[in-house]
Automatic annotation (TrEMBL):
Molecular function (Gene Ontology), one example: DNA-binding transcription factor activity
TM helices/strands, residue ranges: 21-44
Coiled coil (residue ranges): none
Stated name of the protein: AraC family transcriptional regulator
Keywords for this protein: DNA-binding, Membrane, Transcription, Transcription regulation, Transmembrane, Transmembrane helix
Taxonomic superkingdom: Bacteria
Keyword Methyltransferase: no
Natural source organism: Paenibacillus antri
């Protein structure tokens, strides 16, 4: 006893609350101590056990919910990025080596995703194709068959998103000590035939730290099991036998969640377990905290108080001091926990314990508010992802009630509310070449969406902005059904137009939908809004289209189609007259824009012209697939919203390739025609050869053949025949002893013409040439 007293006396310094409490104990604990001790012994222990158990269950539930929220946040983040256009179907055949800038963008996106949540350790992107590609997060070409097979199994099994404890590894790699915690999401996110996966590995130590928050005391253990009962992660408690026994007891119970007391080796544990609903799997958490370590100080204090009260006043003073020390121990433990000192010691500095606790409590409250604010910031991204899926029709299987419940989770009040869709389209991007580079459409759209969001916040309480990254922005406005908003929407449209004109220097086409009564009708109305946008004037100027005031005959007027210009364009292209064809296409576009000239009418006219040109190309014997490199020309043309860009596209993508292909074919035919003529001359030079006869042979006119022959060989037709015959005559004069008359006939000349032509070409007669050769 004296050693214990000495130990307590030599303990660290106590705060003012401790000494005040000790003084009160000395005055109040003597005779009443016996009564108090008995009451504490018989009644307090049970109450404390019950209160601690309830507090423990509440803490476990809150911290389990926190862990579930963290995991749900990871799942939502991955789902959001999987639907990002950057991970769309174009990655299947994308040349990552040639387009290194886009490859770097993918790597940066994976780095961004990897750093978006503290639980994420590594993000990998695998693309299954002829030459499999792995971003880790940097670009690699996979050649390890074991790795490729592992990733292919991830694509084949499970749903689009699921959890697993397997991670593909090279054949030579050693198995990990602990199974990884991996979240798999197939890409593209909206495809029924995925060709890749996003593999997210969680930090095991971070998950373990989250689990440790479920044990409110230093003692105890925490487990996280999958649906087969395998341990995903635990806090590595030394009590291996106890953890196995508790796990078996939990698995034996039929209830999905509950609480029970478990006793082992004289220690009673309060065990709580429950289920976390995960994608394609249910996880079970188990938390066990010792009850005996909590109630034993109370029992010991009660016994001491009874003994001290019976022994007398002097002994009561000593035991009162010991009791105060015992009563103070929970406060001391809490002080050590909140002090932030690694040694756990509390150093009083002109404040008592409860002032310190209040200060620490305020600090924790501020941290909690900070985390809540960060959560609210992420909520906007989740809202945008939900709204994008809604507008694209991916949520049509949900009922109106289910959609309203989901919307309420994102902080929107939609009861007795109606909806309006505002579609904003930016035009005039081609004139911004000095401010933006080619391919910066997403950057321009991002700036516009920020402007729209700021202006909308000034006029509406509930709205959401969707950035489509293609120079178009969507705005969904929610307003009470009994409040007219038409004038406010028109005023907002004017403000957006002025702001975009002033800041971005682009024109705006705004389309405002009619009133939408239910959430399930939003996707259909969005399709109608996009269709109504096509009735804008096909010019780079600001326009506002209100679907409630569209004329009933819009789109039904007969629009004149310039058939004569279409015929002239095709004729110019067939003749290879590039300048004339480009001039006529310009006239065609201008005539299509005359009159009403809405975007949809101009697009239909240009698409019709493209179809007629492709028909003429096929008639000329040229493959459109080869000429346009397999690209969908109609899809490309239908995406163009500006007349200048459309005209430039028609010239560079259609006219120029066809004329160049035509010229290349014409040059090849001319060369083949001359080669056939030369072959004929070499085979029949001893006969009577004429330009007319050769022209008839190759199927052209003498004038054309003469011109082509001179262009290809460098000499005219007569000179080439003469040089060939003289060369053959020289060979015969040197190598044979035939008569000159016979040699003349053999090379296609009569004797009298042969001597004259030979001397003109060589400078000597045939006889003199033979003599010189023999000498």
């Amino acid at each position: 006893m004296l050693k214990r007293v000495q130990k307590y006396a030599m303990a660290g310094k106590k705060g003012t609350f401790y000494w005040k409490s000790l003084i009160w104990f000395l005055f109040t604990t003597s005779i009443p101590g016996l009564i108090i001790g008995g009451c504490i012994y018989w009644f307090a222990v049970g109450s404390i056990e019950k209160g601690v158990s309830e507090l423990h269950q509440k803490q476990i539930a809150e911290r389990a919910q926190n862990i579930d929220d963290q995991m749900s946040s990871v799942e939502l983040d991955i789902s959001h990025w999987a639907f990002n256009p950057r991970f769309g179907s174009n990655l299947k055949d994308f040349n990552f080596v040639y387009y290194f800038k886009e490859t770097w963008d993918v790597t940066k996106t994976l780095f961004m995703l990897q750093g978006s949540h503290p639980l994420i350790e590594e993000v990998q992107l695998f693309i299954d194709r002829d030459k499999p590609v792995l971003f880790k997060p940097e670009y690699y070409e996979l050649k390890d068959n074991a790795l490729v097979s592992g990733f292919e199994r991830l694509i084949e099994e499970g749903r689009n998103i699921y959890w697993t404890n397997r991670l593909p590894a090279p054949a030579s790699a050693t198995p990990p000590v602990n199974a990884p915690i991996v979240l798999i999401h197939k890409i593209p996110g909206d495809s029924t035939a995925p060709f890749g996966v996003i593999v997210v590995s969680l930090k095991r130590d971070k998950v373990m730290n989250l689990l440790k928050t479920m044990t409110p005391y230093n003692e105890g253990l925490t487990l996280l099991l999958d649906k087969e009962g395998r341990v995903i992660v635990s806090d590595d408690s030394d009590e291996k036998a106890i953890s196995g026994a508790i796990k078996s007891e939990v698995m034996r119970r039929n209830e999905p969640a509950g609480t029970f007391l478990f006793t082992s080796d004289g220690v009673t544990y309060s065990v709580s377990y429950g289920t976390m609903k995960r994608i394609s799997s249910d996880w079970t958490y188990i938390s066990a905290a010792p009850m005996t370590s909590i109630t034993s100080p109370v029992v010991a204090v009660s016994n001491m108080i009874i003994t001290i009260s019976a022994s007398g006043v002097l002994l009561a003073l000593l035991l009162s001091w010991l009791a105060s020390r015992r009563v103070y121990s929970p406060v001391e433990r809490l002080m050590k926990r909140l002090s932030g000192d690694k040694t756990g010691a509390f150093h009083p500095q002109a404040v008592d314990e409860f002032q310190f606790l209040e200060r620490q409590w305020n600090h924790l409250t501020n941290e909690s508010l900070s985390l809540r604010n960060r959560l609210d910031e992420q909520r906007s991204h989740v809202r945008a992802g939900f709204l994008l899926q809604l507008l694209q029709g991916h949520l049509n299987s949900y009922s109106e009630h289910d959609l309203k419940e989901r919307v309420k989770l994102y902080g929107w009040n939609v009861d007795d509310h109606v909806f309006h869709i505002v579609h904003i389209q930016l035009t005039g991007y081609d004139v911004l070449t000095e401010r933006f580079a080619h391919g910066d459409e997403s950057l321009v759209t991002f700036a516009a969406s920020n402007i729209i969001e700021e202006l909308s916040a000034e006029r509406f309480e509930q709205f959401s902005v969707v950035n489509f990254h293609d120079l178009t922005v969507g705005l969904l406005v929610m307003s009470p059904s009994d409040t007219p908003v038409s004038e406010r929407l028109h005023a907002l449209g004017e403000e957006i137009t002025k702001a975009v004109n002033r800041i971005i220097k682009m024109q705006v086409t705004i389309t405002i939908s009619g009133k939408i009564g239910g959430i399930r009708h939003v996707p259909d109305m969005f399709i109608e809004v996009e269709r109504a946008t096509g009735y804008r004037k096909f010019v780079n100027q600001n326009q506002l289209i209100d679907m409630e005031h569209l004329p009933t005959d819009s789109g039904t007027d007969e629009i004149g189609y310039p058939f004569a210009l279409e015929r002239d364009v095709i004729h110019a292209m067939r003749n290879g007259n590039r300048e004339e064809a480009e001039r006529l296409i310009t006239l065609f576009l201008e005539e299509s824009r005359s009159g009403r000239g809405t975007e949809i009418h101009v697009q239909q006219s240009m698409l019709q012209l493209l179809g007629s040109i492709q028909h003429a190309i096929l008639q000329s014997g040229t493959s459109t697939r080869h000429l346009f490199h397999g690209e969908n020309m109609f899809a490309q043309l239908s995406q163009i919203r500006e007349p200048d860009k459309m005209l430039h596209w028609m010239k560079e993508k259609v006219v120029v390739p066809f004329i160049e292909e035509r010229d290349a074919k014409a040059n090849s035919q001319m060369k083949r025609m001359v080669e056939n003529t030369v072959d004929y001359i070499h085979a029949h030079y001893a006969e009577d050869i004429s330009l007319d006869g050769c022209a008839d042979l190759v199927g052209t006119s003498p004038y054309t053949l003469s011109k082509l022959f001179k262009q290809v060989t460098g000499v005219n037709f007569i000179d080439y025949v003469t040089e060939l015959r003289i060369a053959q005559a020289k060979k015969l004069l040197c190598e044979t002893d035939r008569k000159i008359n016979d040699i003349a006939l053999q090379v296609g000349y009569q004797q009298r013409y042969f001597n004259r032509i030979f001397k003109k070409q060589v400078g000597v007669t045939p006889g003199q040439y033979r003599e010189q050769a023999e000498a």
